Automatic annotation (TrEMBL):
PANTHER family: N-SUCCINYLARGININE DIHYDROLASE. Pathway: Amino-acid degradation; L-arginine degradation via AST pathway; L-glutamate and succinate from L-arginine: step 2/5. This is N-succinylarginine dihydrolase. One of its GO terms (molecular function) is N-succinylarginine dihydrolase activity. InterPro entries: AstB_sf, SuccinylArg_d-Hdrlase_AstB. Keywords: Arginine metabolism, Hydrolase. It comes from the Bacteria. Its EC number is 3.5.3.23. The active site is at residues 179, 260, 379. Substrate binds at residues 24-33, 115, 142-143, 224, 262, 373.
Length: 456
């Protein structure tokens, strides 16, 4: 590493798929989730697919980290809902009386760490600290129970108060529905001696206004992120208003299954890669971004509806690719395997890499286990920008390297089931298996006690 303390890097922190990965059809508006309800899940394979992607990005010379999963089934929440007795009894009773509630309390949905939080690098905040706000994920019950543990895990990763500021999640309820970085992108001119550490432009995309019914909103599916929530996060992170752009998602595409902005656009450096139908007032959005961007050139790579329909974008998850700057300065798309099986998308990507845009490479990854619940490569990662001082100050055990990759693979091999169905969630031994695994994981990642079962 260079010795320039201002030099900053983008890390991808991927969510480790938890031992209870299953398909419960919990997310209305997320087409993959509802259409794969009750399929047989493969937790071991899912976790290994995720680890392979992390290792591959590490091997490409990118900075990679890992975020631990939740304790599931969430016995503490089941108790709040009136199930009593020993932990095993709580699960048996919930399975009998309210199997859907048990499924919601057993979801491994924290794997999609794009939704874990929104962060702001120290170069952009008034107090020059790195800020984190866990997403309240208020729109979906199974996700609304993630933020407390997410907050504790982030604090265990970024403990030093001289550098890191942690906020609680926004108030619960639809008005301040916040989905984290799935609806937030930071643009920055990476061609400076600070890399990602130059002051960046924060782009917040919301689905609706919570306090103004006269504004456009989707009709069929929920808008999970509100304008008011995006504004609150920008305030909490002490961002300079000149460095912030807010934009509304196109309500029609939300109704077609684009439940987060990262299903229809992705940004990196000075590039926005977006579908033609991504935003309301799309041209104005581009103008606002071009005007606010502090750098030589801002590129919009827009995919026309005639080339890739919204339906094909949702099916292939083209825009849920990661857009990354490789060490040689070139930009690559890290795309899910499904982009190869949707003909229009494959054709588009083959064409794109020969055009004169900053995107010059496509790398395909198999994350099918996650994809079947509506989570592509970009859902699986939280981007965190850190300078050299902050990298030294953080928990070193969560940074991916060859040893950690081997350790985590062995850990998955030891603790995870090959298959899991909704019926299996009624088995109390799944809870014990999961706790045993997570207890070991907190030692591997040096997290201390972050889970409710470790705090009693
Ligand atoms: N786009 C981003 N950034 N994240 C994708 C999240 C997928 C997740 N799926 C689920 O929670 C499905 C769980 C189930 O049905 O079993 C969700 O809808 O919140």
């Amino acid at each position: 590493m260079s010795t320039n303390k201002n030099m900053a890097y983008e890390f991808n922190f991927d969510g480790l798929v938890g031992p209870t990965h299953n398909y419960a059809g919990l997310s209305l508006g997320n087409v993959a989730s509802t259409s794969n309800a009750n399929s047989i899940a493969k937790p071991k394979e899912a976790a290994k697919q995720g680890l392979q992607k992390m290792k591959a990005l590490h091997d490409l010379g990118l900075k990679q980290g890992v975020i631990a999963p939740m304790e599931r089934p969430d016995v503490a929440t089941l108790r709040r809902l009136g199930f009593t007795g020993s932990d095993a009894q709580v699960i048996i009773k919930a399975a009998k009386q309210a199997p859907k509630v048990l499924a919601a309390c057993s979801s491994a949905s924290s794997m999609w760490t794009a939704n874990a939080c929104t962060m702001a690098p120290s170069s952009d905040t008034a107090d020059e600290k790195v800020h984190f706000t866990p997403a309240n994920l208020a729109n979906k019950f199974h996700r609304s129970i993630e933020h407390n543990t997410t907050g504790r895990i982030l604090q265990a990763m970024f403990k030093d108060e001289n550098h890191f500021a942690h906020h609680p999640a926004l108030p619960m309820g639809d008005h301040f529905g916040d989905e984290g970085a799935a609806n937030h992108t930071r643009f920055v001119d990476v061609n400076s001696d600070k890399g990602y550490g130059k002051k960046g432009l924060h782009f917040f995309v919301y689905g609706k206004y919570a306090f103004d019914d006269s504004k456009p909103a989707p009709h069929k599916f929920p808008a999970r992120q509100t304008y008011e929530a995006s504004q609150a996060v920008a305030r909490l992170h002490m961002l300079d208003s000149d460095n912030v752009v807010f934009a509304q998602q196109n309500p029609h595409v939300i109704d077609k299954g684009v439940f987060h902005n990262d299903v229809i656009s992705v940004g990196n450096g000075n590039v926005l890669f977006a579908h033609q139908k991504a935003f309301l007032n799309q041209m104005q959005v581009y103008t606002d971004l071009e005007r606010a961007f502090d750098g030589e050139e801002f590129h919009v790579v827009e995919v026309g509806n005639n080339d890739v329909s919204v339906e094909d974008a949702v099916k292939s998850y083209l825009f849920n690719s990661q857009l990354v700057t490789l060490p040689d300065g070139k930009m690559a798309i890290i795309a899910p395997g499904e982009c190869e099986s949707v003909p229009a998308v494959k054709e588009y990507l083959d064409w794109l890499v020969d055009q004169d845009t900053p995107i010059t490479e496509v790398k395909i990854f198999d994350v099918k286990q996650s994809m079947q619940n509506g989570g592509g490569p970009a859902c699986l990662r939280q981007r965190i920008v850190l300078n050299e001082t902050e990298v030294s100050a953080m928990n070193q055990n969560v940074i991916m390297n060859d040893d950690l990759f081997a350790t985590l693979n062995a850990w998955v091999e030891k603790h995870y089931r090959d298959t899991l169905t909704e019926d299996d969630l009624a088995d109390p031994s799944l809870l014990n298996e999961s706790r045993l695994a997570l207890d070991e994981l907190t030692h591997i990642l040096n997290l201390g006690s972050v889970y409710p079962f470790q705090m009693v």
